[in-house]
Amino acid sequence: MRNRLLLLPGWGLGCAPLEPLAAALQGLDERLRVQIEPLPLLDSSDPEDWLDELDANLPLDTWLGGWSLGGSLAAELAARRGERCCGLISLASNPCFVARADWPSGMPPATFATFQQGCAADAATTLKRFALLCAQGAAEARGLARLLVSAAPLGQPPHLLAGLALLAALDSRGALQGFQGPQLHLFAGADALLPSTVAGDLLALLPDTEIGLIEQASHAFLLERPHELAAAIQAFLHESGDDWP
């Protein structure tokens, strides 16, 4: 199913942020089937539990993609599926969201721990703060943040906390290096959640992989610049899909 792209959302904000991108992609090519899949509702923070759930419920032989946390999960699932995955697309996704000694291009652990504590104490307020961070760097940041919050599902604190713990646990570098299919990784130039060094570090890790940057865009560039993203993705799909219908 080389004409089918499955997209996974990021943490906490649901599927709505991906809808403008899906619509833009299908507007460029009516043969392309774009499907947005919600993340599992799990209390576990074990990556294998999340991958088992996704693997059992998502069709094989498709393109896999995702935004932020969804991109990391898509990378892990692509590596697990190998030749049963057509290719991988990640959007504003850091292989290690939380910084490590051998990957400093992530959120400082102390900052992330404070965010986790805030979510445990008041999940609704934390989601609003998160939406503001996602929108920071956009031309209309406050309006974009309000849009993100208004469309977000009413997530339960145990699921939100499990998702944050999963973010801290994931290290998708091995999956990215191990997956032999085509890959496209797109980043936003004014992303307040991902350090500007991530794109360069990823290129050093994957020198033969296609990596792009949307200048002057926020972490929520799915809503902010969907047509630019769609054009880049469509070009990648057609270059990589030698048996595109």
Question: What is the fold's blueprint, element by element?
Answer:
Layout: E1 4-8, H1 19-28, E2 33-36, H2 47-57, E3 62-67, H3 69-81, E4 85-91, H4 109-121, H5 123-135, H6 141-151, H7 157-169, H8 173-178, E5 183-188, H9 198-205, E6 210-214, H10 221-224, H11 226-240
Parallel strand pairs: 1-2, 1-3, 3-4, 4-5, 5-6
For this structure, what is the CATH homologous superfamily? Answer: Alpha/Beta hydrolase fold, catalytic domain
Largest sheet: 6 strands, parallel
The helix content is 40-55%
**How would you spell out the order of helices and strands?**
EHEHEHEHHHHHEHEHH
CATH topology: Rossmann fold
Structural class: alpha/beta
User: If strands are numbered along the chain, what order do they take across the biggest sheet?
Assistant: 2-1-3-4-5-6
Q: What do the pLDDT scores average to?
A: 94
Count of discrete alpha- or pi-helical segments spanning 4 or more residues: 11
Extract low-pLDDT stretches.
none
CATH architecture term: 3-Layer(aba) Sandwich
Counting DSSP E segments of at least 2 residues, the number of strands comes to 6
Q: How big is the Rg? A: 17 Å
What report would you give on this structure?
There is one protein chain. The model has no long low-confidence stretch (mean pLDDT 94). It contains eleven helices and six strands. A six-stranded parallel β-sheet has the order 2-1-3-4-5-6, sandwiched between helices. The protein is of the alpha/beta class. The chain has a single domain (4-240), classed as Alpha/Beta hydrolase fold, catalytic domain (Rossmann fold, 3-Layer(aba) Sandwich). The chain starts with a strand and ends in a 5-residue tail after the last helix. The longest helix has 15 residues, at 226-240. The chain has helices spanning 19-28, 47-57, 69-81, 109-121, 123-135, 141-151, 157-169, 173-178, 198-205, 221-224, 226-240, and strands at residues 4-8, 33-36, 62-67, 85-91, 183-188, 210-214. β5 (183-188), α9 (198-205) and β6 (210-214) form a beta-alpha-beta unit. The chain is globular and about 45 Å long.
